[in-house]
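#data-curation
PF: Archiving a pair of folding outputs for the training set. Convention for this channel: one message per protein, sequence first, structure tokens after, nothing in between. First:
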Amino acid sequence: MTTVEQSLSGMSGAAGILDRERIIATAGFNRWLVPPAALCIHLCIGMAYGFSVFWLPLSRAIGLTAPKACPDMSLLQELFTTSCDWRVASMGWMFTLFFVLLGVSAAIWGGWLERVGPRKAGVVAACCWAGGLVLGALGVYVHQLWLTWLGAGVIGGIGLGLGYISPVSTLIKWFPDHRGMATGFAIAGFGGGAMIGAPLANLLINYFKTPTDVGVWQTFLAMAAIYFFFMMVGAFRYRLPPAGWQPDGWTPPSEAKSMITQHQVHLKDAHKTPQFWLIWAVLCLNVSAGIGVIGMASPMLQEIFGGKLIGHPELGFNALSADQKTIIAGIAAGFAGLLSLFNIGGRVFWASLSDYIGRKNTYYTFFILGIILYASAPMFAQMGNKALFVAAFCIILSMYGGGFATVPAYLADMFGTLFVGAIHGRLLTAWSTAGIVGPVVVNYIREFQLAAGVPRDHLYDFTMYILCAMLIGGLICNFLVKPVADKWYMKPEEVAALQAAHAKSDAAIKHGSFGIGKGGFDLPSLIFWCFVGIPLAWGVWKTLQAAAALF
């Protein structure tokens, strides 16, 4: 047991309210209260996608009206300077910290989460994410980039990892009949967090800024308080089903027909199977392709279409005036917002669809359709057809999000539900890898093409074919996924012993609807869904307003 785990165990001993045994559901509990609890946490940590909203204000934190630049400053000097403004590129490393630490922390503490339950993990995630923002605010206030990286990037990144995986196995256990849909709803929140957080951050920055302050550190503190409240609500609303519980009238699907195992694979063995590494590669390649596009969505649209975006098809990007470039930058921001919306919607749509067509077939769809769309994108650009180009990338980003939301159910199908949260945590190292590979491939190919004199409207053609090759690799890996060999399955007595250990005080009902099938949503569940749904609806509305500039 690590020092972190020992301290957390001590905390639970003093405050048994966080113990796993305290959150076993009793008869009458409505399982539809669990997805909005997960959304409370995911909508908060999803702001990681929207952190770029802080870069421009922070790039003039000292200069105020314009950046106080120090061109000869090294990155090491930049970490400690108090007299020069930070470069946007240096602050952009926050994204790398976020997603590397997300994967690493999920892998390290996934097993601990399975032992202690989602409530304690959710509370620790809230403390890390909100606490990281507080430390980041201090870094902004004293103008120390290293402190901002440590707070928001490292400590916040640990909160991202624990918060991201905290609901996964719980939702899969509550919804064995709709695994994909349940995880799709929760993980959609991570994609939707920036839709709420970015416009909220803008509002707060404008409220707090003064002639002598850009208003960012105050915004960090305000958002830390808001996020801590919402995440604690989510953590304390988590409930676990009694061991062995299943919905009334539900019959587990046939293993032979569905590739859904009724057995369990232990956490210590899952990574020894070829299935784990094949699914790891499937996720990594799907995410590498999509995340590269997300990072370059705005400049890509501007450079490919140039004056076509504002009714001047004869003008390329370099021929535009400064004012015209400002206008098309606003249009491109709407494109990025639209991609974000499809990223979220795809998480619910594709994960829910996977319950009917199967996880393997869903990933076949991602790769085959993705290859077609990436290969067609240069043709759409050459045709000057903005609508087809935008539609293609909206579908691509829906499958990017769908890949995240479908993979927990894929793992549960392969390895069972007993350790799926911890196995998913280890698999998220694929995301950490993709977070480096995808942007590097897209950005460096763009720079190479630019240096070679390739016209801006053709800068991304070769990139699209490289991304196609990635998806072909993912398609092959998905094809190779077969059911896990019998030798890796736990013996029935081992499973029974673990379930008994997890249910010390649980003599509760093994079967029952827990409110589902006999009325569906009740008033408490409806109120809780509104609690998370109203902020999300506001974020969608703000995104649609920004996207309207495209048309």
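PF: Second:
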Amino acid sequence: MWLVLIVWIIVIFVATVLISQYIKIYQREDVATAFYVLFITMSQILAAKIGDFSIGDFEITAPVAVLIFPFTFQITDMVNENFGRKRTHRMILIAFFTQIVMTIFIWFSIEIPPAVFWGGDPATAQQFWLNFFGSTVRITAASWIAFLITENLDAVLFAKFKQLTKGKNLWLRNVFSDIPTLALDSLIFVSIAFGGLFDIWPVIWGQILTKWFFGVIDTPFMYLSRGIISGKVKLFGDLFNKTIKSKIEN
């Protein structure tokens, strides 16, 4: 688990730097939207796997997607911080439509029979693919409902806290917009996806605690993002930024 945590920190660091550097140079949220769609997509795929997470003696049960999903809230906060609520809602809507298309493509892959040579037995190969990608309609519906409600609510709360604090105390709006929405997301998703199949409360609490953990420790990355965009943190020189900008534009 420690290795997973280290890799998670590296991935979030790199993603935060790339998104922030792009925002600083172009004053647009294009790359943020791209990473947002990527993380939402992977969360959708990994949501069906329930894993055991343990750090020392502390062990909880939760969907594997909890490793990725909290970062989507950081991206909405980054876009909200720099471009406002309307653009954040637009990004969420774009991501939602991509998930509909992704689900259709996965359905295509399930409906098309596998070739005879793939896995030896076509029936076994088809069952493997179905087990891997064939999330039920119930799980997909749960994911979409939770996504639309909580991501948009997070955008509203973040904007409200920013207004109330007059743009100060970034950590306050980051944490207190994420904490309730991450908990609500777990409650909605697990209840709809797995309610009646087994005792869902251990999974709900496991998911909430894991999301809170990853949701809170992403706060330093928000400050890193603000530092890069404002120019107070310079990981790359001006020459590097100009070179990258010219390469992209050409």
